[in-house]
Structures are given as C-alpha cells and as structure tokens.
Amino acid sequence: xxxxxxxxxxxxxxxxxxxxxxxxxxxxxxxxxxxxxxxxxxxxxxxxxxxxxxxxxxxxxxxxxxxxxxxxxxxxxxxxxxxxxxxxxxxxxxxxxxxxxxxxxxxxxxxxxxxxxxxxxxxxxxxxxxxxx
Length: 133
Hints:
The structure is a single chain. The chain is α/β, with parallel strands linked by helices. The protein has five helices and six strands; from the N terminus they run E-E-H-E-H-E-H-E-H-E-H. A six-stranded mixed sheet has the order 1-3-2-4-5-6, sandwiched between helices.
C-alpha cells in the first residue's frame, strides 16, 4: 500500500510528511489523519523503501516506526540525519521506552511518540515542526 496522497491548501505552503511503518493499517490511519490536517503524505511499508522515497522527494517531516524488520527506526533516523540534517524526525514505538531529549538527539530523532497514537499530540508536534521550516 505504498502511496503518495496530496491535499493542498493554496493559502499556505504544503508540508510533506513521509510515514514509514511495516504495518499497513498504521500507514493508512496516519495518512488519512495527516491528509485531513492539510499535509502531503507518502507512506512506505519498509525502511529500505522509505529511505528510497526519502531520497527521491523532499519531506519536511519523517514519522518512522522503531521496530521495522529490515531497518530499525534508529537506523532510518541516522541515515536521514546524514543526508538532510534539518528534517524533523518522529519515532513511533509501541514499546515502553523512556527516552529523554538528550538521548533523542544522540539517536537522531526529534521526538518519540508512543502507540497507541495520541492524535491531538501528533497534530501539535507536526504543526510546530512545520512552523520551524
């Protein structure tokens, strides 16, 4: 279910978000939510496909799952940070991990968001991230 969906509001810049998660339903839910919020959204069901898509197009924000079979979210974040350091990176995890802000920066992510996803919180995080670009 890799896809690119576009919804544009001509009154403002359209921000691009890449969602990388091996669970198709998570990709679909995030795509629909973010699309309704007014963002351009692309999804990838593997780390390798996500990085390939990242290299083909510009994305303001990347939302990646931590536990993806072919590449971990940490690996994806590290590669993205090397290639385009200003990309805002959100790591999604279903694991109960305590990661502080210093660890986030060392691991190349800007924010860790736990599953189940708190959509109002995600909306605020993405809005704040895009306002900085």
